[in-house]
Amino acid sequence: MRETIEFRIEEKDARRFLRPEDGKVIGQMGGVRKVVLETHDIRVAMIRQLHLEFLKRDSSFFTFWDIRRAYTKKELDAAELFHLRLRSAFEPEGEQCGTRYDESVACPHCGVGARQLNELRLEPGSLPRGKDITRTIAFSEIIVSSRLVEALREDGITGARFLPVLREDGRGALDSWYQLEVTSRPLGVAPVSRFGVSPFDPDTRGEYRCPLGHVGGLNLLSELSVRRADWDGSDLCVAAQWIGYRSRNGGAFRPYPLLLISQKLRRLLGGLKGKGFDLEVAHLV
Fold this sequence. Notes:
six-stranded mixed β-sheet; 5 helices; about 15% helix
């Protein structure tokens, strides 16, 4: 496995602390430098130290980060489960379009567990094109293209069902999309999985961790490891701990589930050339 981390740094700061050959300037205005490094590169440690110094001044050395992992064919073929990472989100979310939730049953700390009371409603014009699986900015509202649903049903994929998505005015279902509902039992997250705010901030104060265990943190920083004893063999599962946060004052954001898929489902998605996600190896321990 090859692990890299991308940073985006304001060019004025990059010029001060980095070499000209470190990364490349992006954007029409040329104000941001994109730097992609292997995680063991000594420059990552340097960026970490700079970031910690910037934090002391209530600032940040980088404005964006993203960890990517690439695997050999042998590693992919040997894996039993994969973490399905959704790479896009859209708005407006369901609540803005008439989807109702019962918050009284949700966790008072993190918001996980709110019950959806009616069909997911979305604005047809806002739905992304060229994707097979995506979510709203509420994040827990996941939709799947009709072509993928048809393939999943034909192949006998287990662990999920697909519900109608209505137009925002409630007049008729959308033909091209279904809401994903995972029906398999959740898989406990192994302690080796690491959560945090950023690669250099493990959230030592626990600001984004649910004290009742529903949310592991704001972001997953490592590969996902789950308990083998919890897996019943379903092709689609979720981890028992979610990530993200619930917006205060009734905002759109909610914690969202970490999706896992089987080797069988990975191969189906590969054959379809599915879009809107990437995969990482997940570990059963």
